[in-house]
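Same chain as my last thread, 185 residues:
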Amino acid sequence: MGSGRHRNRDDRTAGFTLVELMITVAIIGVLALLATVGYARFIRTSKTAEATSMLGAIKGAQETYRAEYLRYLDVSAGSLDNFYPAGVPSDSKVAWNPAACAGTPVCNGFMQLNVHADSAVYYRYSTVAEAATGAVVTRDGRTFGVANDPWFIARARGDLNGDGVVSSYWTSSFSTTILSEKPDE
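reply #2:
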C-alpha cells in the first residue's frame, strides 16, 4: 500500500499544470509580439535609409553641379511639390529611370544632376535652387537660412505604410543635417 501511495505522488508531480502551460504560452506570445514589432521597425528603418541615402546623393550632385556652373540646379521648377518619380507617395516601390520620362523638366533635371538609384524607390524626390538674394529662405513652413550665396533644398516624401500619412525629409545647402517630419509613417 505504501508503494501505491508513492506512485500516485510521482504521477502528480511528473507533468506540467495547466497554469504552468498557460504562463509558458503567454511568455512565448509576448516574445513573438516583441519580435514582430522589432522586425517592423527594422523594415521601416531600412526604407527610411533610402530617403537619407538619396538625399545625400542629391546633395552631392548639387555640390558637384555648383562647382562646375557656380550655381545649383533647380530641378523641380521652383516647387518642392514637383517630384520624381511622379505621383502620390505609397507603400509600393516605383522605378527610378529619369530617361524614361525625358523631356519633362524634373526628369531632365535629375538626368542633368546625374542622380541614380540602385533599384526602385519608395520615396518621391524634388530639389529647388535659387541665386543669392540675402533674404531668409522658407519652404514647407521651415526656415532654412539666409540666402547670402546660391542655395538648394532637396526633399523626399513617402508613405511607407500606405495609411495616407506622409513622412518628409529635407536637406539643403544651408546645413549638413537631414531634417525629418513624421519619420515613422
